[in-house]
């Protein structure tokens, strides 16, 4: 099977020659330069031949054009931090105005994606990383966002409509530049941060606007639910083909998720635990245990989030080897 055949068969719960596998990581500092990001993306895929390419712009690209300033301060996962937010006071939400997504930080991401897509020639699914509108609002602000959400919801909602429009236009431009879909990341759908009704109003409402705009235009999308105690039940009916979360750190397990989400689950690897500190045998055992939860069907082996930049090649090789060697069981979900 080629990458597309393997992914599509796995999504449908059909027999595959082997389980699909994809890992991704940040390229800190170099991700600020389109040519370097493209070179890293292509070299990563050429080396490992993963079944899916998650394009890896910095996690702060979506707030910089509104005035937030970010920097890389050595985070183990390679992520940049917002060091000067764009929204500090409630009235600052009114400064969130429409943007041209073909200029500035937004424009650079799809310019780089287009160059990578040209070289990949459509041989492997390519997803642009897109953040949920509420995640973008959180990144551009301080902890005050949570107070404004409850005390001045109209101010936040006005900004969210602007952010959603920009997110949609950026996602559609990504498709026009060669992406086959988006990796849609939400970092606020956690019971530790919001109530279910709060996320329905300020999160899901806008998330679904983005997915609706992609309907019939994207070939496949992945939803990433970041953090602990995620609102899996609330997210499991999103119109997406793939679902990724920190399954090794928080509920639900892969087996539990398979009962609710009918297409392709993505996970199985504890990237900051077993991958970083376990032996190759322990890594292989973790991969096989994850696959055994679904009998090898409807699961793509992947990280709960991005790999640490210090992840060893031998550990990555162990993940790939384990996925390639797994023998499907007769269990089917």
UniProtKB/TrEMBL annotation:
Tree of life domain: Bacteria
Annotated Uroporphyrinogen decarboxylase (URO-D) domain residues: 9-325
Pfam family, one: URO-D
PANTHER family, per database record: METHYLCOBAMIDE:COM METHYLTRANSFERASE MTBA
Protein name, as recorded: Uroporphyrinogen decarboxylase
Species name: Acidovorax bellezanensis
């Amino acid at each position: 099977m080629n990458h597309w055949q393997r992914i599509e068969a796995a999504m449908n719960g059909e027999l595959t020659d082997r389980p699909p596998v994809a890992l991704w990581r940040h390229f800190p500092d170099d991700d600020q330069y389109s040519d370097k990001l493209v070179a890293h993306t292509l070299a990563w895929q050429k080396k490992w031949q993963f079944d899916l390419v998650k394009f890896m712009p910095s996690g702060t690209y979506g707030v910089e054009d509104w005035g937030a300033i970010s920097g890389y301060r050595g985070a183990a996962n390679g992520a940049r931090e917002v060091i000067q937010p764009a929204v500090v006071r409630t009235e600052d939400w009114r400064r969130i105005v429409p943007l041209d997504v073909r200029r500035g930080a937004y424009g650079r991401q799809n310019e780089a994606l287009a160059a990578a897509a040209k070289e990949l020639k459509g041989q492997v699914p390519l997803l642009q990383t897109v953040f949920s509108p509420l995640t973008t609002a959180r990144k551009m602000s301080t902890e005050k966002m949570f107070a404004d959400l409850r005390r001045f919801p109209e101010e936040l909602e006005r900004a969210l409509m602007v952010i959603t429009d920009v997110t949609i236009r950026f996602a559609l431009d990504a498709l026009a530049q060669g992406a086959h879909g988006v990796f849609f990341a939400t970092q606020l759908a956690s019971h530790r941060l919001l109530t279910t009704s709060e996320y329905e109003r300020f999160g899901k409402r806008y998330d679904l606007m983005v997915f609706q705009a992609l309907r019939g235009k994207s070939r496949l999308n992945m939803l990433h639910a970041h953090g602990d105690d995620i609102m899996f039940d609330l997210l499991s009916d999103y119109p997406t083909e793939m679902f990724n979360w920190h399954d090794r750190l928080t509920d639900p397990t892969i087996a539990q998720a398979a009962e609710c989400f009918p297409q392709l689950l993505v996970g199985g690897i504890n990237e900051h635990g077993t991958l970083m500190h376990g032996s190759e045998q322990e890594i292989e055992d973790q991969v096989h245990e994850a696959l055994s939860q679904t009998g090898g069907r409807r699961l793509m082996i992947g990280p709960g989030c991005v790999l640490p930049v210090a992840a060893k090649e031998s550990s990555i090789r162990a993940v790939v080897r384990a996925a390639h060697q797994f023998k499907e069981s007769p269990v089917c979900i």
